[in-house]
Amino acid sequence: MNAHPLVHLIWLLPLAALVIYVGSPRMTGTIALARVRRLLRSALDPRKFTVLDDLDLPAGGGTMHADVVVVSRCGIFVIDTMHRSGKISGTRVQARWAERRWWRTLRFDNPVHANALRIEALAGLLNLPISRFHGYVAVSGPARLQDSLPDNLVTVPQLLARIRSENRMLLEADEADRALRVLMDSALERPWNPRRRWYWARLALLVLFLTAAGLTYHEEITGLAAKLQHQADWRMAPENYHPDGSAKSDIERWEDRLVCSYSADTGRCACYEPAGGRAEISPERCRELAERGSVLKR
């Protein structure tokens, strides 16, 4: 039974919502943060570096957000993340940078300035001089960075090399431990974690999309599943199928188990069950089974 043509439009609604969400700044920012977090936690030695991410910390009379903070004796690395796909241009002193993407130009705040403000706030919170901090802005995505950009704006692969290149000991062991303790103790609890909220939003969109696609293409999906199951059964028990892949009937499978003997001298033919009992079968069919060579022939 064919579905109404309008049913085929149902899956377009969640698909459009999913595409819009994936391309939204919130989602691309989440992707950038997740990529940096995964890279640093898998590649940095946990005995020397402690990676904290997605922190809300007190700053002055309000709060500040830090994407990633890495604490080590080589200093405290304050890393902002962003996802960009165009050609980025700007200088350290410019308040606004530009991203040229296809036919349009997008303007956004200088991320290096924001990173410097974050370092100042963290220096006050931890009671450490700014010289003990390293600030980086990690860019994920297919962005192209102009040479005029500050050197602490790096791609995600470059970030790891930059951190590892900082090998001067800037903090004593007790200073690094105290900084880590203050950061963990000062992190503000969120009544509702935004990342969890957007996780459920993505899950709901995905479930809605799969449900709509399933209703729209039910017959096609059922047919494909049956075909795959048939191929799996054929591979597992080829004796139950003809060479062309069609399934044998119950009678054909029973006849395959018979042992038939035909004597050309006497014209007599007999078929026997695997257990030894004689099978009731016509002489003509008995001879066919014996002659086809799949059973005994005498």
TrEMBL record:
Bilayer-crossing regions: 6-23, 199-217
Keyword Cell wall biogenesis/degradation attributed: no
Lineage: superkingdom: Bacteria
Pfam (any one): NERD
Keywords: Membrane, Transmembrane, Transmembrane helix
Record domain NERD: where: 28-145
InterPro entries named in the record: NERD
Protein name, entry field: Nuclease-related domain-containing protein
